[in-house]
Q: What sequence folds into this?
């Protein structure tokens, strides 16, 4: 188990290194420089020269990359070109909010998806099953861009139950969390159903039943426990899809998370912000994939042997 | 004498017959046909041009001269919705086609050759796979948008100019397609390598090899027919993802160039006026979901129809 963990953690180093190189190379391949082509009024050349010198843009590319990586190791993501705040400050203010939103979304996804999948499998080809699978299909294909305006229209504008936007109170978190969680909930429901259907046909379930174990206990202790193993594997990719969903949700609900800074950085071509946000997002995605792999190896001893 | 045995249908005839029995899939296919029709004949169907602004009647309510109302520039919502079908369908289908062409070639080559080449090719894919594809595509779009639109003066060459001209003509769609093709072949490559590897070990392939069939015959007669079915299913099921990617890029301002209508860009415009005019964000959202759902339902039906194990 230990060598498995070490191997998986060591694999992170080349991944993050290569991703940082690709990002850096892409950002530098843009002709011109961030201070020339951005505004309506061009800056005087002396100012541009001073800005370039200040940000060290006249050095060679390997030097710039090494300096960036050196600062990165110290936890410094550098300054923003377009705003007075540093990228670190942006991450510090946006990340807790985005992480909270992501966690709430995950809670919604798990608490809707898994029970729905189990109910569906236990009632195969009955009304509940058809309803659940229709919900799952719709949930996967209806993007946040569609559901968020609809929800706001129904629950805020017409019914007046929940606030339209912003962040801070629990009422303001309800709609964003549900919208963020519905898609992943649908994926989880389909997967749990398929996995459950396979497990309840196993011999050990029949054995348990023959021994007179109560049906409820069979479902929870014998079947679900094993059925959830393949479900764990999709949590990594699912988390990745929630990150992009969060960008849309944060924007529509005016939530001051990372997504806002990222989109802002993209539209003002603020390269250090884009680079920093990509690295932070990637770090968390890679970390969540690692956590999923470890959890998988932990619950299923067969994996560790490979 | 009457035979009890029903004459065997070909795989495709049988699959098609079973697909027609699946009402949801048929509905999905029907909507796709209608959307395709709208996309092709948009200039004939739409009452106005998508960029025609009427500053006297901005934010007008649905009904009257403008059936679905007008947006913040007084442009007809219905016309923009109809024209928006073009970008979504084109990016969805062409993106899937490009991504699968690159991915299948890469994956099957890697799986078929095997050994060290396979190892190196797949390590590269592993690293790229760890790079979240949406972040990758955003970076690519930033580079494309800035370097080709602002940088045209810097690197003026016939090829650059032609690419930029074509992209402008397509309303910014070319770069979206390039971005999608460059990022989404990776998943396909892994998938098709897996399929190639598992097929290679199948008994019927071994049997064909033992009977003396050559490479060409094995690929054409035994491997290809078994790959085509799953590929069609996977391509269809991947289209909603590409439609969503285009909408997302246009939503954050990296997709189509205004005033080209894209449902994602229309939602972004609509969200800003959400309080007073919620329909401006809701209509394009419904169009987007409808297109995505149709492909998902059709793909699901195709998967069931092409799976010989589900045959009654």
A:
């Amino acid at each position: 188990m230990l060598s498995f963990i070490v191997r998986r953690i060591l694999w992170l180093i080349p991944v993050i290194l290569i991703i940082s190189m690709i990002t850096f190379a892409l950002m530098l391949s843009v002709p011109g420089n961030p201070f020339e082509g951005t505004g309506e009024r061009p800056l005087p050349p002396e100012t541009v020269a001073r800005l370039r010198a200040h940000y060290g843009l006249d050095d060679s590319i390997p030097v710039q990359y090494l300096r960036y990586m050196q600062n990165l190791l110290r936890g410094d993501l550098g300054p923003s070109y377009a705003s007075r705040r540093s990228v670190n400050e942006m991450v510090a203010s946006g990340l807790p909010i985005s992480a909270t939103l992501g966690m709430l979304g995950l809670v919604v996804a798990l608490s809707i998806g898994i029970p729905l999948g189990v109910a569906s499998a236990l009632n195969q080809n009955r009304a509940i099953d058809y309803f659940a699978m229709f919900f799952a299909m719709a949930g996967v294909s209806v993007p946040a861009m569609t559901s968020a305006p609809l929800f706001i229209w129904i629950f805020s504008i017409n019914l007046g139950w929940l606030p339209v936007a912003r962040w801070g109170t629990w009422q303001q978190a309800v709609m964003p969390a549900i919208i963020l969680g519905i898609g992943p909930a649908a994926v989880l429901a389909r997967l749990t159903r398929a996995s459950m259907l396979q497990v309840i046909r196993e011999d050990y379930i029949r054995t348990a039943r023959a021994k007179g174990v109560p049906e409820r206990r069979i479902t929870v202790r014998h079947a679900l426990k094993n059925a959830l193993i393949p479900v764990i594997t999709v949590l990594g990719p699912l988390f990745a899809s929630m990150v992009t969903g969060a960008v849309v949700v944060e924007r529509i609900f005016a939530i001051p998370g990372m997504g806002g800074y990222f989109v802002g950085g993209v539209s003002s071509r603020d390269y250090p912000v884009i680079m920093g946000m990509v690295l932070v997002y990637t770090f968390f995605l890679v970390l969540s994939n690692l956590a999923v792999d470890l959890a998988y190896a932990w619950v299923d001893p067969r994996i560790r042997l490979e | 004498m009457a035979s009890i045995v029903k004459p065997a249908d070909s795989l495709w005839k049988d699959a098609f017959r079973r697909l027609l029995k699946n009402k949801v899939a048929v509905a999905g296919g029907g909507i796709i046909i209608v959307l395709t029709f709208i996309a092709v004949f948009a200039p004939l169907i739409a009452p106005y041009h998508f960029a025609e602004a009427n500053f006297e009647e901005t934010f007008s309510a649905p009904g009257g001269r403008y059936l679905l109302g007008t947006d913040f520039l007084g442009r007809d919502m219905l016309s923009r919705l109809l024209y928006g079908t073009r970008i979504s369908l084109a990016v969805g289908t062409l993106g899937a086609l490009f991504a699968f062409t690159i991915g299948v070639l890469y994956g099957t080559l890697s799986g078929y050759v095997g050994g060290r080449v396979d190892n190196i090719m797949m390590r590269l894919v592993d690293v790229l796979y760890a790079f979240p594809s949406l972040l990758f595509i955003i970076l690519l779009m930033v580079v494309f948008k800035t370097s080709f639109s602002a940088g045209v003066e810097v690197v003026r060459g016939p090829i650059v100019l032609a690419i930029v001209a074509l992209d402008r003509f397509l309303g910014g769609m070319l770069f979206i397609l390039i971005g999608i093709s460059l990022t989404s072949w990776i998943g396909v490559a892994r998938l098709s390598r897996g399929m190639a590897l598992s097929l290679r070990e199948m008994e019927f392939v071994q049997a064909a090899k033992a009977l003396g069939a050559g490479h060409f015959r094995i690929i054409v007669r035994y491997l290809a027919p078994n790959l085509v079915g799953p590929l069609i299913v996977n391509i269809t099921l991947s289209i909603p993802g590409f439609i969503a990617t285009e909408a997302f890029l246009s939503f954050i301002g990296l997709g189509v160039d205004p005033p080209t209508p894209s449902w994602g860009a229309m939602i972004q415009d609509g969200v800003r006026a959400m309080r007073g005019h919620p329909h401006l964000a809701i209509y394009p959202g419904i169009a987007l979901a409808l297109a995505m759902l149709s492909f998902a339902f059709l793909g699901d039906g195709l998967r069931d129809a092409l799976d010989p194990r589900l045959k009654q």
Remarks:
- The mean pLDDT of chain A is 82.
- Chain A touches chain B through 47 residues (CB under 8 Å).
